[in-house]
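Checklist before submission:
- one chain only
- standard amino acids only
- sequence pasted in full

Submission:
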Amino acid sequence: MALLGALGGWIIHALKPPVYEAQAVFSAAIDYTQTGLMTQFEQDQALNAVGHLIASGEVLERVVAKSQAEGMSLTVADLRRMGSVERQVDAFILRLRATDAQQAAYLANLWASEANAVLTDAQAHALQAAHLARYLQSLESCLQRSLIVPPAPALCYQQSPTELQNLITETAQQLQVERQASRNLFSGLLIQWTEEATPPAQPTQFGRNDLILVGTLIGLLAGIVLVELMPPFRRATS
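Returned file contents:
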């Protein structure tokens, strides 16, 4: 009965429409010359920001807009159901499943392309934020020195402390804007789209093992129930 149940699970899977899975890969690394030593928690936090951005609603909405412009009826909910982003050490694998191999590869690459555009833009803002942070630090240091040795023309571009304070305020506001636009990425991250999706040659075995396992358990339980329900003389003769 257990074998029959397993066979039934395999047959049910075989009767389901084939599902093809395409995948695109991003790699991410940390430039320790910029960051210095980092704890494992800090590294995970920095790298996980990449995966969150790839699977973000902003990226999915851009994918939906592009696909709808090409006549495809997709929603963000559809993409979340069809795709996933999995981190493996320093690689992020974007998997997308569809009943058509060409469509799976196309949507995976479209998703990866939009994610790459958002990541590139966020990286540019992260670099600008790092530059502004250093500039702000130099302005604050300059202001301190100008107050000690006024007007300190050789130390500061601005000789007036009031002008320096205004410049510090303006720079701090710009820094806040750039940090928000960086979407939690920081300048020490190196991100690259390393592998494009290709149409899979064979359908995936997605869910097959689960169906066979469930069928086996059902068959086993059914066999136990049948044995218990058999008349005593039949059990004795068997």
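Reviewer check: The mean pLDDT is 84.
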